[in-house]
## 1
Amino acid sequence: MLPPLASRFVAGESAAEVLEHARRTNERGVGVICNRLGEHYHERGPADADTAAYERLVADIGASDLRACVSVKPSQLGLQVDEGLFRTNLGRVVDAAASHGVFVWIDMEDHTTTDATLDAFEAEARDHAGGVGVCVQSNLRRTADDLERLADVPGKVRLVKGAYDPPADVAYRDKARVNEAYRSDLEFMFREFDDGVAVGSHDPAMLTHAADLHTRYGTDYEVQMLMGVRTDAQYDLAGAVDVWQYAPYGSEWPAYFWRRVMERKENALFALRALAGA
Ligand code: FAD
């Protein structure tokens, strides 16, 4: 069972728990992006099992009145087993989601997977216009070129700064340079994209930049933040713009939880305070 400490960042272990979390979060005006925890599978079994779990989840979402969608990781659907397996499993999830009217996001993993992920996204987005989105990372030097390619694809794009640690020949390593890239990537998206822009950031400066770009270009956009991070800001923003919360769930929560705790001082303090009070 999920300890109370972890329940700030993780919606539960089961699909029923993430759907219940979505119901409560929807009541605050925020949509929920459900992510079943699991990644880096090197065998077909777990990749196929998570694919089947996502097929069931999108059916459950479709049968509900929840404002919810899903986000999948390429290595969870089998990319590290074989690119063909990833394409097959992604196709299964997207077909099932389309038949239930549910949107599918594709997370972006480390830089060695970018080509395979964008190729798979483009193929699915052209077959299921309006039903699929992909994440791109501003810390990668290639992203400005990738955005030019994506401008012509009928799908949504989530822009993030990047959670991985790529080498300097492919990525900006300096935080200020990443922020500069994020600003200019966002401006390109607001100017050139017709299918909406997703701002995947907790950074107040980037959220203000997005609001300014919306005023200038009129492009629709949504804000996406992680469960447990700036939750009050998510609720406050929801009156003014579409807000979606990325909510992980599943039995593999310990690794995700510790990643969140270790990445920021605020999260580590929260964990220490909770342990001290336990
Ligand atoms: P940072 O640059 O880390 O911080 C800037 C400012 O934001 C801080 O000074 C602070 O004011 C505020 N802030 C940030 N974090 C916190 C916090 N915990 N508590 C309080 N204030 C905070 N990365 C990938 O590589 N691939 C993905 O597919 C992916 N998907 C994502 C999906 C969503 C919905 C989100 C929100 C992020 C995703 N990420 C993904 C992670 C992303 O790349 C960043 O690592 C992460 O969002 C941190 O960058 P930031 O822009 O939020 O803020």
## 2
Amino acid sequence: MLDQYIQDKIAELKIEDTVYKLPIIIGSEGERAIDIRALRSQSGHITFDSGFMNTGSCSSDITFLDGEKGILSYRGYPVEDLAKHCTFAEVAYLLVHGSLPTIEELKHFSELLGRFALIHEDMIHFFDGFPAGAPPMAILSSMVNSLMTFYPEMTENPLENIDENAARLISKVRTIAAFSFKKSIGHPLVYPRHDLSYCANFLNMMFDSPVKPYEINNIVVKALNKVLILHADHEQNCSTSTVRLVGSARVNLYASISAGISALWGPLHGGANQAVVEMLEEIYNGGGDYKKFIARAKDSDDPFRLVGFGHRVYKTYDPRSQVIKGICDEMLDALKVNDPLLDIAKEIEEVALKDGYFIDRHLYPNVDFYSGIIYRAIGIPTNMFTVMFALGRLPGWISHWKEMWVDPNWRIGRPRQVYVGPKRRPFVPIHERKGDEE
Ligand code: ACO
């Protein structure tokens, strides 16, 4: 796939007196890269790029992102159009299979999602082993890793039935997520229903109760579909790169996804949606003085950051945050919910976007700034927000794992380093050691 994008043009790198000629790669949307794969063997040098700000780790035909222009598309389709016209199941199919499903294909995929929705009854006992108050992301990551023990055939032949296994995972993660919530509040589990769509089924498992049946609200179902679509993939972010890196050691899909869930848990990544609501609550409970928090975010002596602002790749509006803000307004309006946190969020956005500190650093609201407010209105507790992100991101992780597995340029992921520790020195037997001064 990559070879056709390698150009006749070359870049020249001069190290002391030697000039190295490095091929140039131009991707299908014009993204330019210098191919340094032969650099170390030819010159003895590696490149140094902590945080991988300038490093392309793979070629991919799944998602295109232009952080300067604020563009995001899955398999060529703008994310805004997908959020407007598709269900989450349709987009999951698109990501995993590479094309939008026909009516028949979607029907079959939805049947698989229904068929695989149960988890093995033996696995349900696992939930009892977690202590009260265990973080749901820890439960989710452990349970997904455990799935391999119930479906071991994947390790034998990872790509055989990958499409079924993808549907199985997408379906079961939804059930595990809802069950972990029910367990955490000590309520009986609500089993999945074959007659419900992906998102309606999830909401029903989360909120139905023997004493108060849940009424499925189409406005909420629609909003949840859109939010999950907006989270479905985001090229080589921290968790997706983790899935690829772990999978590059030829680790099974479940273990690779479990690692991705752990990466997503971090407050600088998927954990930000929870942190945003916690920050907004703190502002609200403290009397609503959001300007004090903006001032803290600007203070270089204060480590505080305005959560939900800034992004490693977007240096303009995150296109997802625009759509999500619209969904937030529409849903709260339709449900007649008046959330003071939404008002604070809007005020922060308005002030920050006019502030030199944020303008100079290209800090705009990211996808997490408004998603938490939507989850709150749906009734999802704050500690489940990152689990919601994982539900959305799952089809993206699976498609990257699959793509990595069949990539002809695949190699085990193994970055190098610049060693700055002590130079090689003689070993000192224990009775001759003098302690730290040595
Ligand atoms: N509030 C205040 N200042 C900020 C913020 C923020 N949210 N984000 C970045 N900055 C400042 C930094 O202090 C730095 O300032 P300086 O140049 O004066 O030192 C400058 O902007 C550049 O910041 P970096 O940390 O270099 O940017 P990076 O691309 O590495 O970080 C990140 C991106 C981690 C998302 C960062 O913006 C951040 O911490 N945001 C808050 C957490 C958050 O919302 N995370 C969710 C990301 S979206 C996602 O994962 C789905």
## 3
Amino acid sequence: MDKKQGPQLIQDTRGGNLNLDDLVDNPNLEGFHIAAILGTVYGLMTDDDCSAFRSSVVKRTGYEGFLRSPSDMGSSVGSMLREKRDGNEWTGRSVADLVHKYVANQITNEEMAAVLAMIMVKGMATSEIVSLTRAMTDSGDRLDFSELTEQGYVAVDKHSTGGISDGVSLVLAPLVAAAYPQIIVPMMSGRGLGHTGGTLDKLESIPGFRVDLSEDEIRAAMLETRVAIFAPMPSIVPADGKMYALRDLTNCVSDSGLIVGSILSKKIAEGTKVLVMDTKTGNGAFKSKFEDAKLFAQLMCNVGRGNGLNVNGFITDMNQPLGMYAGNKLEVLEALEYLRGLHQDSDFMKVVYTLAEKMVELAGFAEENTRVRLHETITSGAAYDTFLKMVRQQHGDLASVRKLARLLHPTSILTLAQAGEYERINQVLSPEDKLYFTEIRAERDGMVSGFQLTSIGEEIRALGAGRYKQGDSVNPYVGLITAARLGQPVRKGELIAVVVNDGKKGSPEKIREYIHVSENYDLGTKPRLIKELVKPTAG
Ligand code: URA
């Protein structure tokens, strides 16, 4: 039988059900896995129990690395483990040292794995996360826009914890840049994570679009169009690249403090002064419970402020796809529809306008009619033009984007789907590839009563829209078109959704099971879209 993998064994240890026999002759175990197991146990057990456990692990594995003996606890990392185990807070100095030495390879992966595992058990106080964020930020370069900020320009950005059909950045970034000439938007973004999509993957569905911009290219973009969306470069927060890879290998990804440090250090290093957070909650969100989302948003705000950011956050709903389409190119097409002025009353645009207004306010440019100005920036076509300029500036094929808009004008993908014009959608998405369109229709008269959104996201990933490991390629064309929203009345046979697939990967039919229509749906239970505004309470 195959032996268990390291991350699973670390999880077993955390849950108190590690079987020591699983460690014997296990070729999947690296030293950092064993250090993480020992670090976990050290956080959970008394000294005596811990030493007995350590001896058993060492005996079964022949392990000779960090934490194999009590003397390791006297090292600098060992004393940090002891401090945390005993309920004391780490000083800013010790956290800075840890990060600095780890990036300089003076602290090993095994030592860091034990620290991460301890954090997973014991957590970190806000002051420790402030220090971690600062140390991570200081591990590399910071983008410098002083040439512009000295002239009164303000750098703004947003971050979303991720969801299904959350392509908000694609509309928001060009919108605020186009509406306010004193605003710059250096937006460092990510790739798809788990069941959620990533802004960079979406933009890369535009032929030629480059997200790997150099610092000079970003500075040039800020002077020219005042907006760019790009990937973290190796010179920015190297600590995050190294720590994230180890967190992934040791099952230490989900701690809120580590997540906040990872996100905020990159945002600070990209040079933004203003950050608006969109923390999603609901069955498609990483923080499915409202209380957890609120705690996370509060932590983001407090740690951000502790590092000099002007940050506020909204908690918004993720119990149904935010927009109409999910999938990489489909979400670019959706952004083009919004930027052309369609669907302005949609939930998607409500989130865009709410975040944009707050970004403008925190940047110091609020006016009585901020929303009117933002709306006019869409209807005048100025935001659309800025999007096109951003595409050209990042080497995307402008002709292909213009062609998409032309092929769709004056209709939308949704209207085409409702009319059954799948040939035309295939032409728009990818004339060279044969795509398949699996319809999901209401099986009864009633109201749309629920989306099992994480399962839907996982299925979209399985169709090829997302990855399972770093370096996997994504299929830009597959995804989901949803034609109905929660609480909407539907008749038996009415189109609810269309799964766009390549006929090979995934199980498009499965999504049918994840969208529910009931005879009775209490509209009073429909989740509110924008639930709460969160501001820093500390510092
Ligand atoms: N996004 C990040 O950048 N880092 C995390 O740890 C989680 C989400």
